[in-house]
Specification:
The chain folds into two domains: about 140 residues, Beta-Lactamase; about 250 residues, Rossmann fold, CATH 3.40.50.300. It is globular and about 65 Å long. It is α/β, with parallel strands linked by helices. The chain contains 14 helices and 13 strands. Helices cover about 30% and strands about 20% of the residues.
């Protein structure tokens, strides 16, 4: 069974370039996500996955681990990592829906990319020079937050002789010891919660602590405490921009503590980087668009006192005026890319924070075409616009698709039969 399922995963990975996710859902053929869209992978015997088949795939990915199975049965979902030796690694989520199991595997690129390879603003490298405080990477699921954090940690490790502790759910990128020593802890396998691991990390003499996500009040409180006591804390939040990130942090705490938390966070945050992935016009991949808020006297004051249109305090205005400090908004970057012909007008507006204002700015630029392309805008080719076509190529996989990767195209998977192709094990039998 192991060879069958690994062969299936390898075949799906080779079906098209720029694959970020594999998806197994009952009643559908196996699916891959390419540039944000799901595509069916036709495989004999798996034209419509049965509940039994997805259950057997789930068991294989969990290695029949009773702790993971118990979590899945009790909580309805389980996070884990899975690897095909010598090929690639995945971040996996298995969840129940309508009495059956569905599985999503996020492809983790081989090796840790650099900020330059990811196409991020060079100012992101400055985060690795910080000695203390809080740095937050934000954005929706699948926007590349973990990849960017891995690039920052790798840069710190290459240039600083620090002790770095990461707390992840699950571990995605595997970091090797370089100039720094890196210890990676995984929820479930090494520690039961982010809060417990973070509190323990304060006694492990790290200079840098990476927390996979600030999910609750206790984790956020300990992260603030760590930043206040001289640690550099990096973490993520599922928020769409810098202003919403600050609102989320403040909103975690009781209302009567708002001013105290504003003061503490305003004094400890160093950077807030929000990300969105935008499809390229030719369908060859996606671009990471960043909004960057840096801690300056002005932005700290706005965080502590709160934004106020009446008093002219707006983080958006501060970022618009802070280009020399490396700050930018989503709409600034989208307009720049449109001017340079990298994005179409339609795409830029669809991903903008304030589409009407951005449209007004674009309408005053000479050379804008009726179709919405900027000067020298790239046009879609026939092949580029058909992301669903099986294409050969060696590309880096994951949230930042479209980069070179050493992974080779595997052979076709073993022939899978419709009736019970994955053995005769029931997921609940293992709990008896």
């Amino acid at each position: 069974m192991s060879g069958q399922i690994d062969g299936l995963l390898e075949f799906m990975l080779a079906y098209a370039p720029n694959i970020s996710d594999l998806n197994f859902s009952v009643g559908r053929a196996p699916l891959v996500e390419v540039n944000g869209e799901l595509i069916e992978v036709p495989i004999r015997g798996l034209s419509r996955l049965s509940p039994y088949q997805t259950e057997q795939i789930a068991l294989h990915l969990m290695h029949n681990d009773k702790l993971l199975i118990r979590k899945l049965l009790k909580q309805g979902s389980a996070d884990l990592s899975y690897s095909i030796p010598g090929k690639t690694r995945f971040r996996v989520n298995i969840f129940s829906q309508r009495g059956t199991y569905s599985i999503v595997l996020r492809v983790i690129p081989n090796g840790v990319p650099t900020v330059e390879e990811l196409g991020l603003p060079k100012v992101v490298n400055e985060i690795a020079e910080e000695r203390n405080g809080i740095v937050l990477l934000t954005g929706p699921t699948g926007s590349g937050k973990s990849t960017t954090l891995a690039a920052i940690i790798n840069r710190i490790s290459e240039n600083k002789a620090y002790h770095i502790v990461t707390i992840e759910d699950p571990i995605e990128y595997l970091h090797r010891h370089k100039k720094s020593t890196i210890n990676q802890r995984e929820l479930g396998a090494d520690v039961p919660s982010f809060a417990l691991a973070l509190r323990a990390a304060l006694r492990q003499a790290p200079k840098v602590i990476l927390v996979g996500e600030m999910r609750d009040l206790e984790t956020t409180e300990i992260a603030l405490e760590a930043a206040e006591t001289g640690h550099l804390v990096l973490s993520t939040l599922h928020t769409i921009d810098a202003s919403k990130t600050i609102d989320r942090i403040i909103g975690i705490f009781p209302k009567d503590e708002e001013q105290q938390i504003r003061t503490r966070f305003g004094q400890t945050f160093k950077w807030i980087v929000s990300q969105r992935l935008v499809p390229k016009p030719d369908g060859s991949g996606r671009l990471a668009i960043c909004e960057i808020l840096k801690s300056t006297q002005r932005t700290r004051e706005y965080v502590i006192k709160g934004e106020s249109e009446k008093e002219g305090r707006s983080l958006l205005d501060a970022m618009n005026d802070g280009a020399l400090d490396g700050m930018q908004t989503f709409d600034m970057e989208l307009e720049r890319l449109w001017r340079n012909g990298v994005l179409s007008k339609e795409t830029a507006l669809s991903y903008a924070t304030n589409a009407p204002n951005l449209a007004l700015k674009m309408s005053g630029i000479a050379g804008a075409s009726a179709e919405g392309g900027g000067p020298g805008a790239a046009t879609q080719t026939e092949n580029g616009s058909k992301a669903s076509q099986p294409l050969a190529g060696k590309k880096r996989l994951g949230a930042f698709a479209g980069m070179e990767s050493p992974m080779e195209k595997p052979k076709a998977p073993p022939k899978l039969e419709e009736a019970d192709p994955f053995g005769q094990v029931d997921i609940k039998d293992l709990m008896e």
